[in-house]
Amino acid sequence: MINSLTVLTGPNSAALRDAVHGLRPHWTPRGPEPAAFFTLGAPSYLDLAPDPESDVYQKRADSSRPLLRESFGWLYTRLADVLGEHLGAPVHYPEHLALPGFHVWLSAAVFTKPIAPLHFDLQYRAFSWPPGSDLKRQISFTLAIRLPAAGGGLNLWEVSHEQFLRAREKGWIESVADLRRFHALRYVPYTVGRMVIHSGHALHQVAPSARVEPGDERLTLQGHGVWCDGRWLLYW
Predict the structure, then answer these.
(1) Which domain of life is it from (predicted)?
(2) Beta carbons of 27 and 61 less than 8 angstroms apart
(3) Residue 128: partners with Cβ closer than 8 Å, 6 or more residues away
(4) Model confidence over 222-232: pLDDT tens digits?
(5) Is residue 52 part of a domain?
(6) Burial level of 167, CB count in 10 A (0-12/13-18/19+)?
(7) pLDDT in tens, 132-168
(8) Quick check: is 207 in a domain?
(9) What is the rounded CA–CA span in Å between residue 74 and residue 158?
(10) Is residue 236 assigned to a domain?
């Protein structure tokens, strides 16, 4: 199930975009130079999941947390209020995990073909969760702060990781990409100021934009949540 919730007004989104750009010295470049795709914060899918024994994630999570809280404390409060009301349970930011952070695609990184990886959000497996956690109850969310002129969104296929594993075991498919032959694509458009929430368990992909114009940018706040003993634990 996909839900979309209003989090920011237009002026709030513009001010947030300026604040993120004001912290550009703290962005982490991703990919070859000259970099045009960056993160602000510590995404577990990049800094932990590929190598759970590495300390890169924890160091980046710990170093970025004070900066993000100081710069965007109002945003995390707003996010917790909106999500808490929607989910009907309190929201908590564990101190040992990275705060939800930012993806920044400058114009050179905005793509017009479906080249982003198809994936399930499984990075929660790289963590040890406290008693009372239910790893079958998780959420992933994206808050659009700025989008290319041609728009942006999410490609989603209603097929779970468990279904993928069963199909591969039976020899029906060889890779995640093969699932597209058997399941219909659903495009979920993003709107600046609105947050899209889904389970993370369905196959999905960052959708391409129809075209790229000078000055285009795709800026989003990203995060995940796991249910634990009556509340949601948010992280990135």
Answers:
(1) Bacteria
(2) no
(3) none
(4) 999 999 999 99
(5) yes
(6) middle
(7) 999 999 999 999 999 999 999 999 999 999 999 999 9
(8) yes
(9) 34
(10) no
